[in-house]
């Protein structure tokens, strides 16, 4: 018989599960502790800047299948934009060198044969590093695989830091290799850079909430699940404030909260439960310009640029907002934020000015610094082993989140996959078919 699926957490993992289940035979409820859904992938009105910004920057790829399935289900597949070619502009601040990585569209990597399209100074022998990543065993770190040279310093190491949010000397080579297999190894058609035309909420959250509303799914914001009541090896009830929500025999709970929250609710009561317990931060700095810069060349196509040799890693140009991402930011935890912002602004000017028709202001413009202290689990070999599967020892309790065993690092693609996997597990429990592939 159909049951009631209680989804705890309104981030992308929880929304993905809800979208997959809504409209079917199951009743669906989502409980989000905060005032808005979206988790780490949402937009908000920043009162300090007086404009709407994303709480973080996320660069997606055209070959992210779960992302595009999710967007297709909620009718938002056209809200992602990006260049028509798989191009990635870069600047090396130390060497004052600029280039655009221009990948081949097909699987045959012809780009490596062209000095104009590849990383400056790279040797073809360095490509062994990519092969080593794709063949990495679970106990290897990224630095075990890389060949010394320009390809590693100017592409693979920055790529590893941004994808894993963990430094290469501790980051899991197998997790990075999984991303390489799904992107570079499949050719440039799967590597077209994509990002929201307006904002993360406008692409991933608001259309999902509209879709769930039409399909009569319940979404409760400001509803923190404070306790999970266990009995007879399963979940008996959820406690939301003063409310006790009892589960029936056909009901299911999908726990789609961050790893620390899941641990606080389940550890000690759920046999065999484990979760990552070490985390890395991400620092985002949003600068508000008086006018939108007019760009040229590869930066005009891509609207972002990778930065090597500085604190900044990626600079995104969003109309009047220049938004900077610094991954694996635990290394800067003791630095003064004002000092960091001043250094980052000078790096932004060095990255943007040569590709703009007019220089950026010398004086630092109004800004907002967003530091997410527990942005992702630390993607180390040890932490990867702690990631749990979707199913648990409790038959009516499933797990979702980018910290679960998705086979990928903590990414939007991984989060959405985890929600879809939980939804499929609900269908499997009921012996009902899931949504067909799009």
From TrEMBL:
Pfam families: Amino_oxidase (PF01593). It comes from Komagataeibacter intermedius AF2. It comes from the Bacteria. This is Amine oxidase domain-containing protein. InterPro entries: Amino_oxidase, FAD/NAD-bd_sf, SQase_HpnE, Zeta_carotene_desat/Oxidored. Residues 12-426 form the Amine oxidase domain. GO terms for molecular function: oxidoreductase activity.
